[in-house]
């Protein structure tokens, strides 16, 4: 059996949680392969809204197994809060959730380092979620990190102390005003580690290989979006992991030739939270309307998301980098009743018109060139069949499919599980 991937094609928050939840009934296993509690994946069903951070979005389905892969970074404190959030749903997570021994642990001092690093950058800050993601991946690639498997050894606290001491020196080096009470944070952390250890730690690459041999179907759930990828995103305004398809290979131990479908998910417009270039960003009342109707506030930090038109130059690029085989368009319902829609099809760059994403997309380098469309007026949220789509929506979808040369197989018309239309 091949492993299918689901990835965000923009700057995150495309609606991955919703779609993974919808698709889970087709899979035996759902696996997260990168990122950590910087993610906020929202699921809505039966009148309930739930936000997941590190736990895969398959957790609400009775049958599916949920794996946290080696590429993920785990904060025991946030993780335990997440588990507590599941208690009211009566989910047997002790048997449905398994974690890779090779996943790295976010320490309290990683969070503090994140804050110190951002504060020291001033206006040039990344706009990090301050969950300690960057410093934890730095320790991973610097070969200093603590992995879940280490927590099973008696000596792990020695390793912890040495690393935390080093972090405190680094925090001081940043020379910014960060107030903290480490003993208090550590007490909370050590308690959470003990709870975490009640779950099953596995060699997840081995588990997933065996599962495949036994004919189990696997869906890999991406976090963040392709434009936040450490290599291919808008560096340095990115996250610290590979959010693109290759990240699923390294973050789960899946070989490239085991990858099947690559589901690419995008909003009918674009949003971004945090700093960094965003060529099609709107600063007028149209952008404000997108934010208002789309409830564009971060699921993790509550920060307002910046909004703008769909950017096909960027979308083509991320489809290519990921090898997307099927597209899913989210939040078309938000645009209902807009006067006109615009789609960026090229950039003006150094006096020329280009259709590839250049090295630098800062506003002084690129000016978007738009195609304009009539917008649909109908409320889409009650529609359940493509035959109900207004003609303007069909025109928009047809145009995008032609430009991207990939079929749009799913159109989402609201946050609920049921508001998902397959074409
Ligand atoms: P993720 O990080 O990719 O899982 O996305 P988030 O959960 O951070 O943000 C997506 C937001 O849009 C959530 O509040 C979802 O409930 C909501 N959402 C998802 N799909 C749709 C849709 O088709 N229409 C509307 N109106 N909201 C949607
Ligand atoms: P999901 O999975 C949107 C952004 C942050 C910041 C940058 C770096 O819900 O789509 P980090 O905390 O990783 O150091 O932040 O990346 N960012 C996200 N934006 N959705 C996310 O996750 C994000 N995770 C990180 O806002 O700009
Ligand atoms: Mg999100």
Automatic annotation (TrEMBL):
Substrate binds at residues 299-305. Its main location: cytoplasm. GO terms for biological process: 'de novo' AMP biosynthetic process; IMP metabolic process. Its EC number is 6.3.4.4. Pathway: Purine metabolism; AMP biosynthesis via de novo pathway; AMP from IMP: step 1/2. Homodimer. PANTHER family: ADENYLOSUCCINATE SYNTHETASE. HAMAP family: Adenylosucc_synth. This is Adenylosuccinate synthetase. It comes from Nonlabens dokdonensis. The lineage of its organism: Bacteria, Pseudomonadati, Bacteroidota, Flavobacteriia, Flavobacteriales. The gene is purA.
